[in-house]
């Protein structure tokens, strides 16, 4: 018999999700069979796969030892000796990281394992805030993601409960994000709203914009305002009212002001002249604006967090302060 004691990190998730990670060799079919046979119990009693776990619960498994025998490849975070991580904010439930442009958040199709989540896990592991051997199921996880060449705030949940709450709040648009970008030219008008329909082309990894609904397209809405301008460039703040792929990049290009450095929607000649190989776009501000109870994260309601420095702002608009 194996017994798992549910810690705060593991609480709030369904039993089946816990078992998928704690006992990866146990198939879904066998799990349901053993639940029916009462060979998997919760606090000594019969339970269901959908049961939500609470801190202090005990999960007992009366199953063969073969399900616990496993040889795992070394996790990516264990190979990181010095985490590259800028922490904007951290408490017992969440961590806000300032992702540098050029870093991927998760392993991509190229198999890059030098990821933001790996560095976050390494940081928490080395600081003693997270011990994967004590929490058999839950590992710190990202709640949102941004493109490789976009920088800015990414949210990591340190507990299963925090991940569940934040996923719900993001889905309900109760987290507000602001972006800064450097664009070519001057937007006209300097402040406005862009609204149309955006369709993603999976093969080309690019999006197209349409004035009318077309098959596969979704509504895309962006608010923008110009903060500063030079003869050739403008610093623009954007607020996403919808969160579509490449939305800011495509929308600013649609009004004749593509992002500097953007290889998909921008101007290659201007990018090369300035030596920019990635879009100058940063998710610089995050506000928790809960419209309903957030449970264990209610204390975050109304709080706003910003990054301290953006290199491309200092480079092209050194006198600007935000």
Automatic annotation (TrEMBL):
This protein's name: Pseudouridine synthase
Keyword check for RNA-binding: yes
Lineage: Bacteria, Bacillati, Bacillota, Clostridia, Eubacteriales
Enzyme Commission (EC) number: 5.4.99.-
Keywords: Isomerase, RNA-binding
Family per similarity comment: Belongs to the pseudouridine synthase RluA family.
Top-level taxon: Bacteria
Naturally occurring in which organism (per UniProt): Agathobaculum hominis
Record's keyword annotation contains RNA-binding: yes
Function: Responsible for synthesis of pseudouridine from uracil.
């Amino acid at each position: 018999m194996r017994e798992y004691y549910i810690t705060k990190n593991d609480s709030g998730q369904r039993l089946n999700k816990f078992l998928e990670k704690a006992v990866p060799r146990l198939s879904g079919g066998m799990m349901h069979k053993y639940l029916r046979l009462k060979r998997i119990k919760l606090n000594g009693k019969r339970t269901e796969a959908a049961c939500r776990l609470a801190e202090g619960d005990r999960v007992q498994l009366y199953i063969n030892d073969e399900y616990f025998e496993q040889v795992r490849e070394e996790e990516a975070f264990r190979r990181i000796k010095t985490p590259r991580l800028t922490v904007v904010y951290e408490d017992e439930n969440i961590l806000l990281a300032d992702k540098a442009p050029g870093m991927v958040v998760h392993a991509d199709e190229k198999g890059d394992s030098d990821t933001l989540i790996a560095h976050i896990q390494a940081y928490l592991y080395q600081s003693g805030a997270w011990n994967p051997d004590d929490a058999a199921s839950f590992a710190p996880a990202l709640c949102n993601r941004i493109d490789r060449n976009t920088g800015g705030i990414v949210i990591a949940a340190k507990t299963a409960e925090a991940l569940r709450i934040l996923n719900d709040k993001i889905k309900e648009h109760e987290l507000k994000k602001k972006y800064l970008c450097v664009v070519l030219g001057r937007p006209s008008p300097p402040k406005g709203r862009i609204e149309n329909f955006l369709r993603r082309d999976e093969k080309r990894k690019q999006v197209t914009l349409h004035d009318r609904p077309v098959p596969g397209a979704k509504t895309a809405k962006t608010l923008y305002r110009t903060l500063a301008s030079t003869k050739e460039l403008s610093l623009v703040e954007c607020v996403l009212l919808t969160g579509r792929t490449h939305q800011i990049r495509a929308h600013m290009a649609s009004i004749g002001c593509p992002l500097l450095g953007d290889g998909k929607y921008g101007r290659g000649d201007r990018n090369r002249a300035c030596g920019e190989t990635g879009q100058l776009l940063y998710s610089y501000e995050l506000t928790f604006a809960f419209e309903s109870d957030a449970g264990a994260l209610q204390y975050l309601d109304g709080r706003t967090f910003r990054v301290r420095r953006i290199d491309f702002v200092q480079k092209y608009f050194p006198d600007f302060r935000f």
